[in-house]
Amino acid sequence: MALPKVVDHDERRRLIAEAVRRIAADRGLEAVSLGEVAAEAGISKGLVQHYFATKDEMLRYATSTLRTQVERRMTTGGPALRELLVALLPMEETARTDALVANAFVTRAMKDPEIGARFRDGYEELRKVVAGLVVAEQDAARVDAALDPEPEADLLLALVSGLGDAVLLGQRSPGQAEALIDRQLARLAPR
Predict the structure, then answer these.
(1) What's the structural domain count of the chain?
(2) Per the database record, which ranges form the HTH tetR-type domain (predicted)?
(3) Got the DSSP string for 14-40?
């Protein structure tokens, strides 16, 4: 007698979320539908509906997996301030895809309270990490001790956000964006 197939439900949800992210990065959220996701994931529409009754449920889950991917990229090797800021830029294909997906979700985050809360919470966590790295740089005498770490974290994240968009649009090369980060960090050094 054959044993029943063991299904990894979390893996199936991740497979669906990856399909959502690929579609969002390539064609935007307006192209995401249960049928398009099923085709992209290579599974039936019924199976997608088994896990996500609505497009909204599917999109909300996809945002949680996007955050996990970004966090994984940022924490590789316990980055210092500069390395973290550079890791946030769309310098290579995975980071570029993540940035395109995040940008696709921004408008949705303004209209969907759950996705909006997820984006705000993620930003606050990132802001705390960057502020902590500014403090570490101050302790190492590489950043002026008189600077307030929290506003500096906000400014650095705003810089990276703008540079990320400029790289995506082709207005700046990854090298130019990295040079601008270095320039800003040099401005934070003790005088």
Answers:
(1) 1
(2) 10-70
(3) HHHHHHHHHHHHHH-GGG--HHHHHHH
Q: Please give the Cα distance from 56 to 12 (Å, whole number).
A: 17
Could you give the CA distance from residue 157 to residue 30 in angstroms, rounded to a whole number?
28
Angle between helices 55-75 and 113-139 (to 10 degrees): 10
Q: What is the pTM of this model?
A: 0.84
Q: Which domain holds residue 164?
A: 61-187
Nearest one of 55, 56, 123, 54 to 88, comparing CA atoms: 123
User: Contact, 34 vs 49, CB < 8 A?
Assistant: yes
Q: What are the tens digits of pLDDT across the range 81-121? A: 999 999 999 998 888 988 999 999 998 999 999 999 999 99
Residue 54 lies in a domain: no
